[in-house]
Specification:
The protein has about 260 residues and is an all-beta fold. The chain contains no helices and 21 strands. The chain is about 0% helix and about 45% strand.
Length: about 260
């Protein structure tokens, strides 16, 4: 019947603050099996980018055949070109893991988890310097596990783009020039101490706040943790607060010289 299997990726926009949203539309025209959500970014000059991972509509099934796809708009999101694959075909994409996209100037960055041979759940960074027309892939973390860890990640664009991800119960961040490497330790043998879903923000002085979820799982809430870093080095002790609801994770922002953490 020509119907696309699985959930659609629905998009809507409002032209100005306070205006009603336009009717939603499905951006998946050549892909299927949306999982792990999607991510949207804009560069401030009319370019809007939406990324997700899935299988080609006319291609094979499975995680090994999944790729990261990008739909790009040059008119503030009014119209989008058909999605194109931007990740290397051989890496696959981890089905339930969320990806992230960020844009700044002419640069577009995407972070995703691979599923090579179904056991290499490595983290890859995709970098474009031509506003999303072409991408180069770089592996930034290796993790061999024969299951989907249901993870998510974070990107902060800037003079040096920062990436954050999960690895076997710990969270870490690094810069795109292999500077500011700062893993956050965790007792990974204790399920209640395992850390997931890192989020990053950077203050005016370059101080980094990383937050994460602790002890969460399928249909299980937990706690929020956070840590300040200066030049990649922890400042003080990591902090924690109970009460993170089921299916939730923190959000962080730098506002007027202060850090804000929401959950």
């Amino acid at each position: 019947t020509g119907q696309k299997p699985g959930m659609p990726l629905l998009y809507a926009r409002a032209e100005r603050a306070g205006a009603p949203f336009e009717s939603q539309r499905n951006l998946m025209t050549a892909t299927r099996h949306l999982d792990g959500g999607s991510s949207v970014a804009a560069d401030g000059s009319g370019q809007v980018f939406i990324a997700w991972h899935g299988n080609a509509l006319d291609g094979p099934e499975g995680e090994q055949a999944r790729r990261v796809w990008l739909a790009r708009s040059a008119d503030d999101g009014a119209t989008f070109a058909a999605e194109v694959p931007i990740s290397p075909a051989e890496t696959g994409a981890c089905g339930c893991c969320g990806l992230r996209i960020a844009a700044s100037g002419s640069s577009v960055d995407v972070l995703y988890r691979a599923a090579t041979q179904m056991v290499h759940r490595d983290i890859y960074a995709l970098r474009s310097s031509d506003r999303g027309r072409t991408f180069a892939a770089h592996k930034i973390d290796e993790w061999e596990i024969g299951a989907c860890p249901m993870s998510s990640m974070a990107i902060v664009p800037g003079r040096q783009t920062l990436y954050a991800w999960e690895h076997d119960g710990a969270v870490a961040f690094r810069g795109d020039e292999k500077r500011a490497v700062a893993p956050a330790p965790a007792d990974t043998n204790d399920a209640s101490a395992r850390r997931k879903h890192p989020r990053l923000t950077v203050g005016k002085d370059g101080t980094v706040l990383m937050a994460w979820a602790t002890g969460t799982g399928w249909n299980k809430g937990g706690a929020v943790g956070w840590q300040l870093f200066a030049n990649g080095v922890p400042v003080g002790d990591a902090q924690a607060q109970d009460g993170l609801p089921v299916w939730s994770f923190p959000a962080v922002a730098a506002v007027d010289g202060r850090f804000v953490l929401l959950y």
